[in-house]
Amino acid sequence: MSEKAELAAVMAYFGVSWPELNEGLTYHDIVRPTDAGLTLIEFYFRKYKNSAPLQGWLQRIQNKQITIDGKVAILPDTELRAGAELVYHRLPWREPDAPYLLEVLFEDDYLIVVNKPSGLQVLPGGLYQQRSVLTQLQWHACKPTTTSSGCQKTHPVPVHRLGRGTSGILLCAKTKLCKSRLAAYFAEGTSVVEDKCTNSECNTMRKICKIYRALVSGVMDMDEVVIKQPIGTIKYPGVAKGLYVASPSGKPALSSVRVLERDSENNCTLVQVEIQSGRPHQIRIHLSFIGYPLIGDPLYVSGGQPKCFHPELMDESFEKDGGYQRPENPVPGDCGYNLHAHQIGLIHPITNEHLFQLSFKHEKNAKRASQTPASMR
């Protein structure tokens, strides 16, 4: 890492404790001509079937949570006209517990790199609409002390994702230019893999390198292995867009794995993984595919498949706001596995400096922030 980057590396924390309830959500829809003539209940049940059962949408209408052109809708069989504006107000709720403190590993005028603790979601989604890294970044940028107007001119946003249960280094852009260039870095890396280049070719052509540490079940016999198993999706209860799994018909993915430490007594192995593509849950899927699933992974087992394949029957039960209850089967956001984004190397998207070996250097703070074993540092 350059001397300038070393000087910019700071050990600081920011974060605001979460309020008991979030602010709820508001969803807007404009009725298309193809949907004209549908009743209100038909519209919502057809379009948002994964959000709530029929009885749940009826409950939301009865709760006066839906308006048509600004007026509260009280009749589920109200016929809709093309161009009508529908607004559904989701009631505030208490989101599941999540950490909120973020450690700053590096910051300049364009980038802020943070240590994300395990248990904190990167972007809003599902039950976590407020408790996310993005929300803390937004609150941090709008501290009253930053400028006389109340908010910084920059609005930092994460440029890639880490699973909710994954801890470690997360890149966030503070300007639109920085965000677009970092996004291009990731896209270029994935396109190289899709062209089926060799591992060495991938390394020379990429402008960003992410290295993880994982604790897997079993004592791995090989010292190094390259996994090229494609990753696709299958239908899975509780996951609207499908669950990512090892699939011959999926998209290309490449992970380079190196053994760091074997523990025969506890039947586990500490490995380092460099990913050449960024498929969702890639490391969890790839390591389980070769027979070494992450210790504590509630979802993926050997073969890169989920523990539960049989579809779950919906019992039409729902929460007080009408939405489906959480499925009983494990889902991708569940925590418990041991995965840490340990190191990143990149060409600075604005200054073109080589920021190599940007990694954890504060052992005590890393251990407190990440909930992963000390050996994974």
TrEMBL record:
Q: Which CDD domains match?
A: PseudoU_synth_RluA_like
Catalyses: a uridine in RNA = a pseudouridine in RNA
- Which residues, if any, are the signal sequence? none
Q: Could you tell me which residue ranges the Pseudouridine synthase RsuA/RluA-like domain spans?
A: 110-288
Q: What is this protein called?
A: Pseudouridine synthase RsuA/RluA-like domain-containing protein
